[in-house]
Design brief:
The chain is mainly alpha-helical and 564 residues long. The chain is built from 19 helices and 2 strands.
């Protein structure tokens, strides 16, 4: 049967719930007197949190974070300048769903303060509490990434609760508490086979591995104590998921499609790479993602910086490989490269560009949205006319936790700890390269790329970071990676597109439709950002708190560098 791995209790809620519903819950109708009677009530309460496992967009006004999340990094270049990537963060006046909002934490704490009232077996109660602690860990992780120090709240607050006026707790205290919560959740949640489509211990292990890699490396590169503990926990969590062969890369020995099929499948239920995916089902919950990518409705593009990261088919970077044919045309750039490149961007005459041949840069008049750099996204596009004809009723499944990330976490955490051996690489990076049809990484043969973005780190760690960038491109990881590596200055690198070839774009007028840099590469933001992007290291690793919150709670302090 199609799509058997479904969050059965929550799939209807995915279609019917929205953020405003979440913010109103719990209501006065949920009380100690008329709730907390049985397991069904605990399940109903927990179902509301499943909307936090965000997938593809389900209306034309909402773009999936997987498709456009990298726009705030150096991986993507949208037509409209992204303020975060450009260093134009300003102090918000008031809170909203993105700014210092604590309604979800309150709803989670409301459950944790009361679920033990339910007169059922403790083990059953703890399963639902494990789900809640999973979501609480995820929410606090997002808040710490955004603000650093935040208040740790262990109970739901009322309008007169003194905790409303407390100062922020230290990042160290908060993340230690998050680690305790996710460990508790792992110990209480059922195995995947027994989870009946709900949160399971493997999902919690994946979340833990992601959290611990981020926190361990952030602490290491930002000079915060305790980095090794989190890196060791990242190794432990990822290693647990790597044992036993429960998960495998989607590898059918067809490098031309195996990577891509993780992102352009209408049914991921048989894909063993998926630790968790969000299914889309006709007449229940649908998405417009593939249709939007088909027409480039997002008016976005891939950066030359990302394109240059892909190795040539001999396993060498473009600065070292004799196979690299140069930047003379998009056709040259995409020849003899890691097959994941042309499963992420459109190669002329292939996949999405079979008919138009070239991407629709401004002024080209080739149809569809503008592709500012000339590197057009093909990830998340299904080669199926029936799917993109469905428009907002598409059935493209969305991978959320995939095994490839676990392999990358294991390799990077081991490398940061100094414990990465050839055996580690063979069990992680080389699995990814085998799937892509690329030569294996041999540590003793690595030569530092002269064009590396990270000249001061070891060649091994450098190449692991490259592999991560390539494998997880356009999956909303890159900005967080730059922040944890204290590499925000990379956002200041010149924003470039492909080398412009006039004969391939006879209608395009240079200086009117597009602008070029001194070397003939498309410069998408020459008029709107003539001095390039700026990144202020004194403040921009964190976001500013809203002014209103500082007025309401004098114990709060603004993050450094932001004027109140």
């Amino acid at each position: 049967m199609r799509k058997t791995i479904i969050f059965a209790a929550s799939v209807i809620l995915f279609a019917s719930c929205n953020d405003s519903f979440m913010e109103k819950y719990p209501t006065d109708a949920i009380s100690e007197l008329n709730f907390w009677h049985n397991a069904n009530e605990l399940e109903i309460y927990c179902n509301t949190f499943y909307t936090q496992l965000e997938g593809h967009g389900n209306n034309e006004f909402y773009a999936s974070k997987y498709c456009v999340g990298d726009e705030q990094s150096d991986n993507m270049v949208p037509q409209v300048l992204n303020d975060i990537a450009a260093g134009k963060n300003i102090v918000p006046t008031s809170s909203n769903s993105e700014e210092w909002n604590w309604s979800l934490i309150r709803s989670l704490n409301y459950f944790l303060s009361r679920y033990n009232k339910t007169p059922i077996a403790q083990a059953t109660k703890d399963i639902y509490a494990g789900e809640v602690k999973f979501f609480k860990s995820m929410e606090y992780f997002d808040k710490v990434k955004r603000y650093g120090d935040v208040p740790w709240l262990s109970k739901d607050l009322k309008i007169d609760s003194p905790e409303l006026f407390k100062a922020r707790d230290s990042r160290i205290m908060v993340m230690d508490s998050v680690l305790n919560d996710i460990n508790w959740a792992i110990s209480k949640l059922p195995f995947k086979a027994n989870a009946k489509g709900r949160i399971n211990s493997d999902m919690a292990l994946h979340l833990k591995a992601r959290i611990c890699l981020h926190e361990g490396t952030f602490r290491k590169y930002h000079g915060i104590k305790g980095s090794e503990k989190f890196l060791q926990e990242a190794v432990s969590a990822s290693s647990t998921l790597m044992v036993g062969g429960k998960y495998q890369l989607n590898d059918t020995n067809n490098p031309a499609v195996d990577y891509r099929n993780n992102f352009c499948s209408l049914d991921l239920s048989a894909n063993k790479e998926m630790i968790f995916f969000r299914p889309y089902i006709e007449a229940v919950i649908t998405t417009h993602t593939s249709s939007s990518v088909e027409g480039n409705d997002y008016n976005t593009s891939i950066s030359k910086s990302l394109v240059e990261s892909y190795l040539c088919t001999d396993g060498k970077p473009i600065s070292q490989s004799p196979l690299y044919k140069g930047d003379g045309s998009l056709q040259f750039e995409t020849t003899d490269r890691d097959p994941r490149l042309t499963q992420t961007i459109c190669a002329p005459g292939q996949l999405l560009l079979r008919k138009t041949i070239m991407p629709n840069i401004p002024g080209a008049g080739l149809g569809g949205g503008n592709c500012p750099t000339g590197y057009q996204m093909v990830k998340y596009w299904v080669d199926d006319p029936a799917e993109y004809a469905r428009k907002q009723k598409g059935l493209l499944d969305c991978p959320i936790f995939r095994y490839a990330e676990i392999l990358l976490i294991n390799a990077e955490a081991n490398a940061e700890l100094g414990s990465c051996t050839q055996a580690t690489i063979d069990a992680t990076i080389n699995k990814l390269r085998d799937r892509a049809g690329m030569p294996n990484m041999i540590i003793s043969n690595l030569v530092k790329d002269v064009k590396s973005d990270f000249p001061t780190i070891s060649v091994l760690l450098d190449e692991i970071r490259r592999e991560r960038r390539v494998e997880l491109a356009i999956e909303n990881f890159r900005y967080d990676d730059l922040m944890r590596w204290k590499a925000g200055k990379l956002l200041e690198k010149p924003i470039r597109g492909m080398k412009f070839v006039q004969s391939q774009y006879p209608k395009v007028v240079v200086g009117k439709n597009i602008y070029l840099d001194a070397n003939g590469y498309i410069n998408p933001y020459q008029t709107v950002l003539p001095n390039g992007r700026q990144f202020d290291e004194s403040k921009q690793y964190y976001f500013p708190l809203p002014t209103e919150e500082l007025v309401l709670n004098p114990a709060l302090t603004q993050n450094p560098g932001y004027t109140q």
